[in-house]
Amino acid sequence: QMQLVESGGGLVHAGGSMRLSCAASGFTLDKWTIGWFRQRSGEGREGVAYISSESSTYYANDVKGRFTISRDVAKNTVFLQMDSLKPEDTAHYYCAATQVIISTMNPLFFGSWGPGTQVTVSS
Question: What integer best gives the mean pLDDT of the chain?
Fold first, then answer.
């Protein structure tokens, strides 16, 4: 069955960098749009970035220029490189998949959610 597992989270100081991984099993990841979402404590899940099966990308305004999403086909893994981290980036980060053609990151269009990984940015 389709499964996604996130890894790479942890504690980092403001201004630092971190790379998250989203490893897929049970399906070929590059045939899907893969999105990264985050959920701050007490808040809803919001879109961060996605990469489509055609390799188009999207970034939320508050991460644009700091985060980069990429895909390693051989490893069947999508990465989220996070640079210049801010305390406001602190959240639980999830990846998920969809085959719906989207123009905005609505989590209702995504499935196969992983368990997520916690990112904490200290000031």
Answer: 95
